[in-house]
Amino acid sequence: MSEPVWDQFLTERDREVFAGGGFGARQGYGKRPALLIVDVNYFFCGDRPEPILESIKRWRASCGEEAWDGVAAIARLLNACRERGLPVIYTTGSRRPDGWDAGSWAWKNPRVNEKPRTVEGGLDGNTIVKEIVPHPRDIVIGKHKPSAFFGTPLLSFLVQHGVDSLLLTGTTTSGCVRATAVDAFSNNYRVAVVEEGCFDRSQASHAVSLCDLHAKYADVVKLDDALAFVQTLPGGMFQLPSAG
Fold first, then answer.
1. CA angle in degrees (0–180, nearest 5) for 154-46-147
2. Domain range list for the chain
3. Which distant-in-sequence residues (6+ apart) come within 8 Å of 58 by Cβ?
4. CA–CA dist 154, 139 (Å, integer)
């Protein structure tokens, strides 16, 4: 197995501290997982694969080509989860057209009021990319802050379906994915962050955030490991809405 993506950023002292402190133990998957896909929209992906320095000219929060590698990984996991009938939950940004509800986002970025749209179709940036478009039986939650739990009905849906764990994917690793993983941990859910299904505009932030999550709050797992786990699950565990 390849070394963790964060390994290149760790000092020898870091490795000794993690080992000596007992950090990074494998907690394992739960028995009734849901797939959570955080903010995989055009705002964070751009409307086509291209180098990040080109993409951010039009989409200020774009993660560039690495976003589309993440989309491809998520699509594979999404198909596997749907075949087993697992709950699939998406989040995306929610914002009034006048920007009144932008809140503290406006404090840290002067480009926050930009409203880019896709070249083809003129889709709003908060639209989930078509490659992983939600199905009628999936849940789509609008959110205003980094965590998928903050100010949303996510927790109530998990309770309703008897979910005990999350397969977590999305963007950005250092922002909304991390915040969501920590809140899931705080609510006593087991979390498996699927490495290839997460992406960030900063390579260092992506790697170090995965390191910190794996050390304390979640298992960071490879896509193939997550797919193999999903294949072990029986179908029909959840009573989901009709897809008709």
1. 20
2. 29-231
3. 46, 116
4. 9
CA dist., res. 175 & res. 154, Å (int):
18
- Rounded to two decimals, the pTM is 0.95
Token pair for residue 125? 């940036």
Mean pLDDT, the chain cut into blocks of 10 residues (244 residues total): 88 96 97 98 96 96 97 98 97 84 80 86 94 96 97 97 98 98 98 98 97 98 98 94 68
Nearest to 167 by CA among 138, 136, 137, 192: 192
5: which residues sit within 8 A by CB, 6+ positions away? 195, 206, 207, 210
Distance separating alpha carbons of residues 137 and 154, to the nearest angstrom: 15
CATH of domain 29-231: 3.40.50.850
Answer for the pair 30, 165: CB distance below 8 angstroms, yes or no.
yes
Please list the residues that pair with 115 across neighbouring strands. none
d(CA 76, CA 133) in angstroms, rounded, equals 13
Residue with tokens 């009628």: 136
